[in-house]
Automatic annotation (TrEMBL):
Chain ranges of the EngC GTPase domain: 89-239
Protein name: Small ribosomal subunit biogenesis GTPase RsgA
Location of the CP-type G domain: 80-241
GO molecular function annotation: GTP binding; GTPase activity; metal ion binding; rRNA binding
Species whose genome carries this gene: Winogradskyella jejuensis
Length: 316
């Protein structure tokens, strides 16, 4: 049988088949995936093949194969060096909630997030939340920020999770896809998910009741089906993205507007710093590249050994 992993509790995996049945599955023996040193071989979002076993009238599954992942999000294990923990896989898009104040979201945070999402090959949509609570000046700031990111190609929507403004637009984008929500604590992620699917709380309980292990309060990711052909992956206590190890030369490639210009730089390994005939620096001088983006780029490069290798997960 083939199914998708909705929840993992360490040794058991809740797998949903296309006809809607949930199976509790285990992995038999050693199950290694080439190339990834991870503490968990299978993650929420994985598509797996399993055999059904019946013991004492209970059907369980034994996972024997995992389909190739479209993408996956990792977090570095704190204790085991060089080991990673895969939080989720096959994520179609992530909605990054941004607020100008209460709490402030700095553009350096947005840019670092976007670089990581680019490295993971996950599409990001920026949601500027709480527009109901902003004065005119703050709304102008939203417009300005949105114009910077729209120009690069990121979809931006001003929303109010509290009043429901533009929540329908978010729902439309979610149709047929698996989405995640990210952003600082207090930006309104729970409020938005509630506005999108008020009954989700009940559904959460329904799924965990089927669990042989009972309810788990650890920070395992979990996938939920919504009422309108959309899935979300909830990662309790985790607000950002994990670390991606990248080389200095790669960072610029995850700034789409720099990547597009790179072919016009004199040196094909241009870091857009002090090199002559650098197309990115020229664009910066002509205001075609945003200064705040370039500043974030420098910060990421400068922090080579510390910052961007530092775990930028935010946990409660
Ligand atoms: N005015 C206004 N307030 C909002 C809006 N969305 C959320 N809030 C408020 O902001 C606060 C934080 O919202 P939450 O939904 O709990 O934020 P969160 O991102 O889930 O926070 P964590 O659970 O800490 O990660 C609450 O007091 C919400 O009522 C909005 O669109 N407008
Ligand atoms: Zn350059």
């Amino acid at each position: 049988m083939i199914g998708t992993v909705y929840k993992s509790t360490g040794s058991w995996y809740t797998v949903k088949t296309p006809n809607g049945k949930f199976y509790e599955c285990r992995i038999k023996g050693k199950f290694r995936i080439q190339g990834i040193k991870s503490t968990n071989p299978i993650a929420v979002g994985d598509v797996v093949e399993f055999d059904v076993e019946t013991k004492n009238n209970t059907e369980t599954g034994v996972i024997k194969r995992i389909e190739e992942r479209k993408n996956y999000i990792v977090r570095k294990s704190v204790n085991l060096s060089k080991q990673t923990h895969i939080i989720a896989s096959n994520v179609d898009q992530v909605f990054l909630l941004v607020t100008i104040n209460n709490p402030p979201t700095f553009s350096s945070f947005i840019d670092r997030f976007l670089v990581t999402a680019e490295a993971y090959s996950i599409k990001t949509v920026l949601l500027f939340n709480k527009i109901d609570a902003y004065d005119e000046e703050t709304l102008l700031e939203v417009k300005y920020l949105a114009s910077i990111y729209r120009k690069i190609g990121y979809e931006c929507i001003g929303i109010s999770a509290a009043t429901g403004k533009n929540v329908d637009k978010v729902k439309t984008l979610m149709e047929g896809k698996t989405s995640m929500f990210a952003g600082h604590s207090g930006v309104g992620k729970s409020t938005l998910v509630n506005a999108i699917e008020p009954s989700l709380d009940l559904k959460t309980k329904a799924i965990s009741n089927q669990h042989m292990q009972g309810q788990h309060t650890t920070t395992f990711a979990e996938m939920f089906d919504l009422s309108f052909d959309a899935k979300i992956i909830d990662t309790p206590g985790i607000k950002g993205f994990g670390v991606v190890d990248m080389e200095k030369e790669e960072v610029g490639d995850y700034f789409p507007e720099f990547f597009e210009l790179k072919q016009d730089c004199k040196f094909n390994n241009c870091l857009h710093l002090k090199e002559p005939k650098c197309a990115v620096k020229e664009a910066l001088e002509n205001d075609e590249v945003s200064y705040s983006r370039y500043r974030s780029y420098l910060q990421i490069l400068e922090g080579e050994d510390e910052h961007y290798r530092t775990d930028n997960w935010e946990e409660n």
